[in-house]
């Protein structure tokens, strides 16, 4: 009968999902943060040979069990002729040391996140980027959860990155479905999407829906994202991320 086939299909999907998540997160589960690599991944532009203003957004699998389903994201900026990058991110452990969770540091922008290799989500360059950097700095200062951190459903590092993107014209940022916390809205239940190309409704980051040109259609269920991106012919799944036949 149809309902039996549906149950079997559902169990197969769950088993496959669990296997994939185990392969992705198994290494991180056994890692020690004290010895995990924080070295550069070698994918960021050299500021000495790239004098133009640059804004980049990075994502890497979160540390330990959190990496089974989610990523940590951060923003890096470099002004014209600057010798290095400024990195903006939210780091949860700072809360437990009575420090603001928002960290602003001059460092290599592509450091591994405690062993996890980062990916570049956005790379914007050119003279107009100086104004974008100004807006990023203002948005960072205006982040309303600078003294708060909750792994799930937020506010966390992805809440911060999404907030900055929503408040900066020129950052057309399509955060991955694994960026748990991106749908936690600092105020209200309706907002523009991080890409600025649509709108979303979200109840405390636990239940919501999004429709946008860049992100496509997403459904948030208990902080997990399921979606379809017609523009890139991709489906979005919790833990796995984006599946698309098109090259990145």
Give a description of the structure:
By secondary structure, the protein is of the alpha+beta class. It has one domain. Helices cover 21% and strands 27% of the residues. It contains three helices and twelve strands. The strands form two sheets. Strands 6-7-8-9-10-11-12 form a seven-stranded antiparallel β-sheet, with no helix packed on it. It has a five-stranded antiparallel β-sheet with strand order 4-3-2-1-5.
Number of helices: 3
Secondary structure: number of strands: 12
Given the C-alpha coordinates, what overall shape results?
globular
What amount of the residues lies in strands?
25-35%
Mean pLDDT: 88
Radius of gyration: 18 Å
| Strand order in space, largest sheet | 6-7-8-9-10-11-12
* N- and C-termini, Cα separation: 40 Å
- Sketch the topology as an H/E string, one letter per element: HEEEEEHHEEEEEEE
Specify the helix fraction band: 10-25%
Low-pLDDT residue spans: 1-16, 21-28
Question: How does the major sheet shape up?
Answer: 7 strands, antiparallel
Helix/sheet category:
alpha+beta
Oligomer: single chain
Number of domains: 1
Which key phrases capture this entry?
248 residues, alpha+beta, 27% strand
What order do the helices and strands come in, and which of them pair?
Layout: H1 2-29, E1 54-61, E2 71-78, E3 86-90, E4 102-106, E5 119-125, H2 129-142, H3 157-166, E6 190-192, E7 198-203, E8 207-212, E9 216-221, E10 224-229, E11 234-237, E12 241-243
Antiparallel strand pairs: 1-2, 1-5, 2-3, 3-4, 6-7, 7-8, 8-9, 9-10, 10-11, 11-12
């Amino acid at each position: 009968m149809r309902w039996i086939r549906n149950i079997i299909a559902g169990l197969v999907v769950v088993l496959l999902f669990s296997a994939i998540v185990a392969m992705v997160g198994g290494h991180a589960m056994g890692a020690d943060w004290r010895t995990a690599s924080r070295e550069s991944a070698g994918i960021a532009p050299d500021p000495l040979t790239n004098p133009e203003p640059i804004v980049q957004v990075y994502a890497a699998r979160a540390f330990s069990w959190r990496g089974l389903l989610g990523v940590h994201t951060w923003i890096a900026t470099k002004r014209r002729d600057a010798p290095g990058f400024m990195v903006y991110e939210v780091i949860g452990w700072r809360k437990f040391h009575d420090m603001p969770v928002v960290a602003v540091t001059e460092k290599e922008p592509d450091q591994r996140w405690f062993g996890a290799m980062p990916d570049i989500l956005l790379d914007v360059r050119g003279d107009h980027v100086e104004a974008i950097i100004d807006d990023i700095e203002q948005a960072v200062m205006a982040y309303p959860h600078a003294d708060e951190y909750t792994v799930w459903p937020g506010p966390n590092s992805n809440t911060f990155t999404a907030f900055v993107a929503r408040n900066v014209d020129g950052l057309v940022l399509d955060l991955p479905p694994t960026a748990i916390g991106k749908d936690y809205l600092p105020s209200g239940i309706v907002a523009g999407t991080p890409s600025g190309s649509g709108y979303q409704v979200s109840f405390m980051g636990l239940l919501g829906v999004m429709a946008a040109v860049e992100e496509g259609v997403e459904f948030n269920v208990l902080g997990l994202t399921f979606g379809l991106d017609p523009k890139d012919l991709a489906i979005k799944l919790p833990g796995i991320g984006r599946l698309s036949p098109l090259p990145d």
